[in-house]
Amino acid sequence: xxxxxxxxxxxxxxxxxxxxxxxxxxxxxxxxxxxxxxxxxxxxxxxxxxxxxxxxxxxxxxxxxxxxxxxxxxxxxxxxxxxxxxxxxxxxxxxxxxxxxxxxxxxxxxxxxxxxxxxxxxxxxxxxxxxxxxxxxxxxxxxxxxxxxxxxxxxxxxxxxxxxxxxxxxxxxxxxxxxxxxxxxxxxxxxxxxxxxxxxxxxxxxxxxxxxxxxxxxxxxxxxxxxxxxxxxxxxxxxxxxxxxxxxxxxxxxxxxxxxxxxxxxxxxxxxxxxxxxx
Length: 279
Prior knowledge:
By secondary structure, the chain is α/β, with parallel strands linked by helices. It has 2 domains: 8-50; 60-278, Rossmann fold (3-Layer(aba) Sandwich). Helices cover 29% and strands 15% of the residues. It contains 9 helices and 9 strands. It has helices spanning 8-17, 27-50, 138-141, 144-150, 171-182, 217-223, 247-252, 254-257, 271-278, and strands spanning 60-62, 67-69, 71-73, 83-90, 114-115, 160-166, 197-201, 226-230, 263-267. The strands form 2 sheets. The protein has a 6-stranded mixed beta sheet with strand order 3-4-6-8-7-9, with helices on both faces. Helix 1 packs antiparallel against helix 2 (27-50). It starts with 7 loop residues before the first helix and ends with a helix.
């Protein structure tokens, strides 16, 4: 006869009745314990299946490479509305192995919904003792302990973007929409349905820094612009070539595709020099 297959906890209960498990307790207690384990497992499975991701808190957008699941952040502000964040979005293939010192290549597509609710690793760097403080920006040297917290997770696979998208349900946006209906007024970026894209390139003398340090939620909500921060290779791994022309499209995907193709590139010194290379 073929053996009967039971789920693991139930199988243990069956085996205990046959004497294959050590009987350190009375059989009735062992059987009760097994049955309780089975019921507990069923309860856990039912709870896991019932916990669905709330689409209002975790919006999903479609990009040119696949779907992204972000997170909607409430700024707890009477004026500024919530902002959708899409963190750790790849804008290039991982520059590792044979690609280590090569120009970046377009990222590969993905089939499943990609989780974009956490920051990706930062590019390899060392905050302490690499450069004189005079070569580092003041905000960096005054907050070395804070900066060190952002660079704990490092990897050569670090070419990722963070995208901050304003929502249309903020009080500031509604206020401007109402005023534009009542009377003519000068053009304002908050009146546009097609939002511009701002790319921010961090500084750090090409040796330190990460776009993860800059939470652009307030800027995105107040200016009603899509703000993109980024990581790029540093130190000996640095390349002055990047597919930055496609960054907005990669970052926003269909979000950016529906909007008017206009934007700005900004950054700190020497990020201004980096911007010139990226352009």
